[in-house]
Design a protein that fits this description.
The chain is α/β, with parallel strands linked by helices and about 325 residues long. The chain folds into two domains: about 60 residues, Orthogonal Bundle (Helicase, Ruva Protein, domain 3), CATH 1.10.8; about 240 residues, Vaccinia Virus protein VP39 (Rossmann fold, 3-Layer(aba) Sandwich), CATH 3.40.50.150. Helix content is about 40%, strand content about 15%. The strands form two sheets. Strands 5-4-3-6-7-9-8 form a seven-stranded mixed beta sheet, sandwiched between helices. The protein has a two-stranded antiparallel sheet with strand order 1-2. A hairpin with a 2-residue loop joins strand 1 and strand 2. The longest helix has 15 residues. It is elongated, with a radius of gyration of 22 Å.
Length: about 325
C-alpha cells in the first residue's frame, strides 16, 4: 500500500472503481472495521446499483458517484452498521429492510430458523410463532420456506414492529405464492398467550415456537460500537442475568405448544448447558406447569413443561440455541 495514503484522505481524484475499492478498504481496515473488503465493495455496489460480484466489470466513476461513496464510507468509518447504510440485511434466502430501531438479523439466527423449519415441515398443522420478532426474519423465513404455514410474529417495541410489518408487506407476493401467512401482533412476547392476549386462541395448537429474545445482562455493555451504539437496547438487554425475557418466552411457549411441539430459542454462547442454573437449558428444565399451562395442553400441575432441553452449537462451535419439546400428556 502506498505510504502517501493517510487516514484522512478521501477518494478525491481517484476515478477507477478498482482504485476507489482499494482506498476504501484500506481506510476501513485502518479504522478497525470488521470485514473491510466486503464492506467497501458493498458500499460501492450500492451506490452504483449493481451486484457486488459485477464491480470488476466496471471502470470509471462519475463525480456524483464518488461523492456519494465518500458520504457512505464516512458513515461506516464512524461505525454505523453497513446494513443501516444500505438499508437491507440478508437472511437465508430473504433480503430484509432494516434501519434505526430494529435489531439486525445475524447468521447465527439462521441456524435457529433451520431447526425450527425442520420441525415445522414435519408438523401436520404447520402453525408457528416467532416471539420477539424484530425485523420478522424468523417468521418470514419459516413462512416462505414452509408452504401452507400459518406464522404469527410477536413484537413489543413500537419502532421494531413497524419494521416487522414493512418486511411482511414487502414479501406479500412470496407468501401468497407458497400459500402461507404471517400475522403481526404488537404485543409483549411474555404475555401474548395469556388470557385476553392475541394468541390465546392458539393455546395448545402450535407446532413450533422460535425466538431470538434479548439475552444480554443489563450490566454487560457490548464492545462492538455497531451493537452498542446502534442496536435498540430493548432488543439487547434481558435483565440482571439476561434471562428475564427468556423466562417469559418459555412460559408463553408452554401455553402455545401442543404436546410434542418444539421450542427453539437463541442465547449467548455463555448461556448454554455448561452455565448450569444461569443457562437457558436449565431455565427450560426447571419450568413447571401451573393451572393455565396444564389447561392449555396438559401435563401435570407442578410437573415439568418441557422434556430435557438440549443445546446446539453455531458455526464457531459455540453453544448458541436450545431445543426443548413440550411434554406429552401422561
Amino acid at each position: 500500500m502506498s505510504e502517501s495514503w493517510s487516514d484522512g484522505q478521501t477518494i478525491g481524484a481517484r476515478t477507477s472503481v478498482r482504485d476507489v475499492l482499494v482506498d476504501a478498504e484500506w481506510r476501513l481496515r485502518r479504522a478497525g472495521v470488521p470485514s473491510p473488503a466486503v464492506d467497501a465493495a458493498e458500499i460501492v455496489a450500492f451506490v452504483l446499483q449493481v451486484p457486488r460480484t459485477r464491480l470488476f466489470l466496471l471502470d470509471d466513476l462519475r463525480d456524483d458517484q464518488k461523492v456519494r461513496i465518500e458520504q457512505l464510507l464516512a458513515l461506516r468509518l464512524s461505525r454505523v452498521p453497513l446494513q443501516h447504510i444500505v438499508g437491507t440485511a440478508p437472511f437465508r434466502h430473504l433480503e430484509l429492510q432494516v434501519g434505526q430501531g430494529v435489531f439486525i438479523p445475524r447468521p447465527e439466527t439462521e441456524l435457529v430458523t433451520e431447526a425450527a423449519l425442520r420441525a415445522l415441515l414435519e408438523s401436520d398443522d404447520r402453525i408457528a410463532v416467532d416471539l420477539c420478532s424484530g425485523s420478522g426474519a424468523i417468521a418470514l423465513a419459516l413462512a416462505t420456506e414452509c408452504p401452507g404455514s400459518e406464522v404469527h410474529a410477536v413484537e413489543l417495541d413500537d419502532a421494531a414492529v413497524a419494521w416487522t410489518r414493512r418486511n411482511v408487506d414487502e414479501h406479500a407476493d412470496a407468501l401468497r405464492a407458497v400459500g402461507s401467512s404471517v400475522t403481526v401482533h404488537h404485543r409483549d412476547a411474555t404475555t401474548a398467550a395469556d388470557s385476553g392476549g392475541p394468541l390465546e386462541e392458539l393455546r395448545g395448537r402450535v407446532g413450533v415456537v422460535a425466538s431470538n429474545p434479548p439475552y444480554i445482562p443489563s450490566s454487560m455493555v457490548p464492545r462492538e460500537p455497531e451493537v452498542r451504539d446502534h442496536e435498540p437496547p430493548v432488543a439487547l438487554y434481558g435483565g440482571p442475568d439476561g434471562l428475564d425475557i427468556v423466562r417469559g418466552v418459555a412460559r408463553t411457549a408452554a401455553l402455545l405448544l401442543r404436546p410434542g411441539g418444539l421450542l427453539v430459542i437463541e442465547h449467548a454462547d455463555v448461556q448454554g448447558t455448561a452455565a448450569g442454573p444461569a443457562g437457558v437449558p436449565s431455565v427450560l428444565d426447571c419450568l413447571v406447569a401451573d393451572e393455565d399451562v396444564f389447561s392449555a395442553s396438559g401435563g401435570v400441575v407442578g410437573g415439568p413443561v418441557f422434556d430435557t432441553a438440549v443445546d446446539r452449537i453455531d458455526l464457531n462451535g459455540l453453544p448458541r440455541f436450545t431445543l426443548a419439546r413440550r411434554v406429552i400428556r401422561p
